[in-house]
Design brief:
This protein has eight helices and no strands. Helix 4 crosses helix 5. The model is unreliable at 1-18 and 47-56 (pLDDT under 50). It folds into two domains: 1-34, no CATH class; 35-232, no CATH class. The radius of gyration is 32 Å and the shape is elongated. The longest helix is centred in the C-terminal third of the chain and has 52 residues, at 145-196. It has 233 residues and is mainly α.
């Protein structure tokens, strides 16, 4: 359909005399005056849509989140796993973000049910407080069953990604630790040889990332462990 025929339909069959550029500006102006959903139900659906987008999108910290709490949460995760290279840092941050999003789902589910109970409270006619709460929750769950099912689906997906990321981080760190042990064993033997010859030694020349002080500490601890084993036998 041509632009002319579309304009005629929009104007009851009469051709539009408004230039295209003016119509574009008018549409933009009308959009600026839009106030979004007006009813409580509409606002609730809009809010849930935004939260659903936040659960599946790339934005980790939503406007309703506490940025300070998020940063503290990330620091605690990094302090626990102590990543030492770029890939470990990346996986540790992914782990922190996934845990943050999982916690958000738990809070969101509780808030949705609480809101639903409050909305259905007046529709339940019983004097028993526990029965009243149970029936109101049942109505809330029935009304929001689709949204709750979506939350459960997102939670399962995030949980699977969390455990996969955790395993990747643990495997990567275990492999690094094994390499470091072998490297430290070799570095200690080479340093001991240089000390016996009274020749200075720079571990960097052999590709080691340890300092002489770290190697010395390893040697001293190894010697004390050997002494402890001999004393025990």
């Amino acid at each position: 359909m041509s632009d002319i025929s579309k304009n005629q339909i929009a104007n009851g069959g009469a051709p539009s005399t408004e230039p295209s550029s003016n119509r574009t500006e008018t549409n933009r102006a009308n959009a600026q005056h839009s106030t979004g959903p007006r009813t409580d139900a509409g606002k609730q659906r809009s809010s849930l849509n935004a939260l659903r987008h936040g659960l599946t999108g790339h934005t980790i910290v939503l406007p309703s989140d506490d940025l300070v709490a998020y940063e503290r949460h990330c620091k605690e995760v990094h302090d626990q796993y102590r990543p030492k290279n770029k890939m470990e840092v990346l996986l540790a941050q992914m782990l922190a973000d996934l845990a943050w999003r999982l916690n958000r789902i738990t809070a969101l589910e509780a808030n949705m049910l609480t809101l639903g109970i409050n909305e259905h409270s007046d529709s339940v006619d019983t004097e028993n407080h526990q029965t009243h709460s149970a029936l109101a929750m049942a109505k809330a769950f029935h009304q929001q069953s689709r949204d709750l099912a979506n939350l459960s689906m997102y939670e399962q997906r995030l949980s699977a990604r969390f455990h996969k990321t955790l395993k990747q981080l643990q495997d990567l760190q275990a492999a690094r630790i094994d390499r470091e042990k072998l490297d430290m064993y070799s570095a200690a033997r080479i340093l001991q040889m240089h000390k016996n010859k009274k020749v200075p030694y720079n571990p960097v020349e052999d590709g080691f990332v340890f300092s002489n002080a770290e190697i010395e500490t390893y040697i001293e601890r190894r010697d004390r462990e050997n002494q402890a084993l001999r004393a025990a036998s």
